[in-house]
Amino acid sequence: MAHDPASGARGVKICGLTEEAGFDACITHGADWVGFVFFDRSPRCVTAAQAHALSARHTGGPARVGLFVHPDDETLARVLEGVSLDILQIYASFERATEVRARFGVPVWLSQPVSARADLPAHCPAGVERLLIEPKPPASATRPGGNAQQLDWGLMKGWMPTFPWMLAGGLNPANVAQAVAITGAPAVDVSSGVESAPGIKSPDAIARFIQNARSVTFSA
């Protein structure tokens, strides 16, 4: 089930799951979303069969999110044939995101990399359920996200979007509460920040990240 921001609890997504211990920790500690990466340049890349095997360990629970980088329709169709996904998280243009939503009928999240306040989006494209606000990758990066790069949270002070969004980039158990306090993020996304090695999640770090992400409350 997708997280409902109206519930008052901060939404938490654990992305880049590749092994059983990490997936099971997400279930145990109440993550709202679990993410599988379908991008071969990532150390967290999995096949549809691997994602299916992990997802089958627990029925119900967190929504399953598939992450794709500029995917074509053939790639999306092939993965969706192999594993049931509740959300498609993509790196693409606004127009492409809208096309994917119409073509596959699955909710779409769209990455929105930023480096300055002027980059913060004023609206969310029709057909896109949520925007992920994360740092623009360095010029030397080989992938658009998952670089453990931290956004300047201060540039988001006073930014009050009217659409669902999520904060990503460089988050970990030690800094997520501060990030939330500064940005007011209704939901957060982490991958490398809860790992003991690239692609290997730490159950203890997952538990602490979820607890700390939800420790900050805001008055009405």
UniProtKB/TrEMBL annotation:
Catalytic activity: N-(5-phospho-beta-D-ribosyl)anthranilate = 1-(2-carboxyphenylamino)-1-deoxy-D-ribulose 5-phosphate
Name of encoding gene: trpF
EC number(s) given by UniProt: 5.3.1.24
InterPro entries listed in its UniProt record: Aldolase_TIM, PRAI_dom, RibuloseP-bd_barrel, TrpF_fam
Pfam families reported in the protein's UniProt record: PRAI (PF00697)
Organism: Acetobacter cerevisiae
Pathway entry: Amino-acid biosynthesis; L-tryptophan biosynthesis; L-tryptophan from chorismate: step 3/5
Gene3D superfamilies membership: Aldolase class I (3.20.20.70)
Organism placement in taxonomy: Bacteria, Pseudomonadati, Pseudomonadota, Alphaproteobacteria, Acetobacterales
GO terms, biological process: L-tryptophan biosynthetic process
Keyword Cytoplasm: no
Family the UniProt entry places it in: Belongs to the TrpF family.
Enzyme class: isomerase
Name of the featured protein: N-(5'-phosphoribosyl)anthranilate isomerase
Gene Ontology molecular function, alphabetical: phosphoribosylanthranilate isomerase activity
UniProt KW keywords: Amino-acid biosynthesis, Aromatic amino acid biosynthesis, Isomerase, Tryptophan biosynthesis
Ranges for domain N-(5'phosphoribosyl) anthranilate isomerase (PRAI): 12-212
